[in-house]
């Protein structure tokens, strides 16, 4: 150990320890959407990961208590949207419980496989769900990319220390 490094007092594992630790981890912000029997559903995610290039696979986590979980549990296809720094309100809308996520001012259209595709995002993908893996009170959804558009303009929206922010130069 160097003179400038120090370890704090270790805390036992808990949900609060995990949340406190990951508040320090800057993450890109995505919105995941799907078409459900009662209409479109979606949620804000910071757990999006590129899993494989061949075949092209992504993953994301969703809590089984989330309002959008019943739709995500049944959906054959999902939309994955990377948000730009100009979309913090959109991210907040899809993160808020009870919000009308697809009402005005949210702008979207039906995309490939009937998946709701959000307008004005940095990039979007439509993916076929290939697995839902139990992981504590969440499910890790694995999905294979079938279509998309990476050509949106702007800089990414980030989530850090409990708030939405952008990159600094």
Automatic annotation (TrEMBL):
It holds the Pfam family Flavin_Reduct. One of its GO terms (molecular function) is FMN binding. InterPro entries: Flavin_Rdtase-like_dom (IPR002563), NADH-dep_flavin_reductase (IPR050268), Split_barrel_FMN-bd (IPR012349). It comes from the Bacteria. The keyword rRNA processing does not apply. GO terms for biological process: pyrimidine nucleobase catabolic process. Keywords: Oxidoreductase. Residues 22-166 form the Flavin reductase like domain. PANTHER family: FLAVIN REDUCTASE (PTHR30466), FMN REDUCTASE (NADH) RUTF (PTHR30466:SF1). This is Flavin reductase family protein. The lineage of its organism: Bacteria, Bacillati, Actinomycetota, Actinomycetes, Kitasatosporales.
């Amino acid at each position: 150990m160097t003179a400038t490094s120090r370890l704090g007092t270790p805390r036992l594992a808990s949900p609060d320890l995990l949340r406190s630790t990951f508040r320090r981890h800057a993450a890109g912000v995505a919105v995941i959407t799907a078409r459900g029997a009662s209409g479109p559903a979606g949620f804000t995610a910071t757990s999006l990961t590129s899993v494989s290039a061949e075949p092209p696979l992504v993953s994301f986590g969703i809590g089984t208590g989330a309002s959008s979980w019943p739709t995500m549990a049944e959906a054959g296809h999902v939309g994955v949207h990377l948000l730009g720094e100009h979309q913090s309100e959109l991210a907040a809308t899809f993160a808020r419980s009870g919000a009308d996520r697809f009402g005005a001012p949210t702008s979207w259209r039906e995309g490939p496989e009937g998946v709701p595709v959000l307008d004005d995002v940095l990039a979007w993908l439509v993916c076929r769900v290939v697995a839902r893996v139990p992981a504590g009170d969440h499910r890790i959804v694995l999905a294979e990319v079938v279509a998309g558009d990476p050509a949106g303009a702007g800089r990414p929206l980030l989530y850090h220390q409990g708030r939405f922010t952008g990159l600094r130069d």
